[in-house]
Amino acid sequence: MSEMQKKKAPYTVPIGPTHPALKEPILFTFQLDGEVIQDLDFAPGKAHRGIEWMGMQRNPVQILHLCDRICGICGVSHSLAFAQAVEEAGNIPVPDRAYYVRSIIAEFERIQSHLLWAGVAAHELGFDTLFYLAWQVREEATDVLEYLTGNRINYGIIQIGGVRRDITALMFPRIEKALVYYEDLFEKMTNLFLNDKTIGMRCKNTGILPRDTALELCTVGPTIRASGVKADVRVDMPYAAYGDLDIDYVQPDVWGGETNGDVFDRIVVRLYEILQSVQIIRDCMKQMPEGPVLSETKYAKLLSNLKKVEGEAIGRVEAPRGECFHFVRMKGKEAPESWKVKASTYSNQMAWLEMLRGEQVADIPIIVASIDPCMSCTDRVMFIRNNETDICTKEYLHRLSVEKTRRMQE
Is 340 helix (H, G, I), strand (E, B) or coil? Predict the structure, then answer.
């Protein structure tokens, strides 16, 4: 590097509110020295919808419909966390069979969510064929969810005190068919993602989040597990049927014996969690007890009982992206006095600061996408260089990422 280049002041590159990786409405501000990120900041809050305020104008059963729509990819995690909080506050029983139904739906949701993320990650690296394959494979999980609940997303199956629909033995063959499908494909998918030379060059030692930093920042889900920390709500504070099942933490050492906390490790964790979910679902079918799936089947009586609830509680669920947290305070009225939601991305987004410093501009899309952020969308990017403003399409940064992949393949 020449002396002139060393003395050159860094320039500022705002990216957002559109983000090029997942079309997420969040504003990043990068301080760059050439193509290297020296420092950065980000400003979320571009997709505020007032869901908590709307919820405090409704009864808990109506709030469940809002919970399903907090996130289109992990909606059942939010409705389940909310239901658990209300059930805890009101001492509302849940039949044992309902716990197993909840776990089966949650694990199918984890499978489709991780495959969706894998496709997006492949796209950001320039492997669109792998992107289409991952999303084609994902269809099997969404088809099963539609078969079980009636919907591919926004399943609407969680109810206060249980679930709205049972999973009967007649449905088990269709579920088993999907499980065998994913087991048969697992070796192929891991080979395509983890043995590809270019994916390794792009993702290994990129976007590193050290173990101690992951703990300090209180990250969750695959993000913290990829940094070598054993943290999973299903194991640490079991809910639904997870306390009856043999579940362990999925960490990067399952592939190659090393843990670096980089983008590659986050790929490893998510792929192997798909295989883990297959086993969890199969165990749920084997161990599912007989009995009802709802403690109170009369809707009017359930609402009457909920109006009498006084107390506060929390619900914690291991969503595909990590811990999902709901707080509810009931004061003997139809609507909660307070309802607060903390989604997984809220816990993980501060890790971007550590992951992105020292990396290249072309690595921004895959690093940001590596925590699987969930926000919303809009449609352009603005660059400011030397006080001059240029507006370009969101494809620009994606093109830089693809060009870097192509250079590595030469």
Answer: strand
By the 8 A CB rule, do 245 and 284 touch?
Answer: yes
- Which pair of tokens denotes residue 126? 């320039």
Which DSSP letter does residue 23 get? Answer: -
Tell me which residue has tokens 């660059």.
383
Rounded CA separation 207/65 (Å): 36
**How do residues 212-270 score in pLDDT, each as one tens digit?**
999 999 999 999 999 999 999 999 999 999 999 999 999 999 987 789 999 999 999 99
CA–CA dist 52, 339 (Å, integer): 6
* CA atoms within 13 A of residue 333's CA, in its CB half-sphere: 11
Burial code of 72-81, b = ≥16 C-beta within 10 A, e = fewer? ebbbbbbbbb
For 85-94, what is each residue's pLDDT tens digit?
A: 999 999 999 9
Q: Domains, the chain, ranges and CATH?
A: 3-46+347-409 (3.30.390), 51-346 (1.10.645.10)
User: What does the pLDDT read at residue 380?
Assistant: 29
Q: Residues 111, 114, 117, 123: is their CA dihedral positive or negative? A: negative
pTM as predicted: 0.88
3-state SS assignment for residue 354: helix
Instruction: Report d(CA 70, CA 55) in Å as an integer.
Output: 11
CA 226 to CA 246: how far, in whole Å? Answer: 21
Residue type, 174: R
Residues lower than pLDDT 70 in the chain: 1-9, 18-24, 46-48, 375-398, 400-402, 404, 406, 408-410
- In b/e form, how buried is each residue of 311-341, taking b as 16+ CB within 10 angstroms? ebbebbbbbbbbbbbbbbbbeeeebbeebeb
Distance separating alpha carbons of residues 245 and 318, to the nearest angstrom: 15
Picking from 281, 344, 291, 284, the residue whose alpha carbon sits closest to that of residue 318 is 344
- Using an 8 Å Cβ cutoff, are 21 and 369 in contact? yes
Cβ atoms of residues 273 and 250 within 8 Å? yes
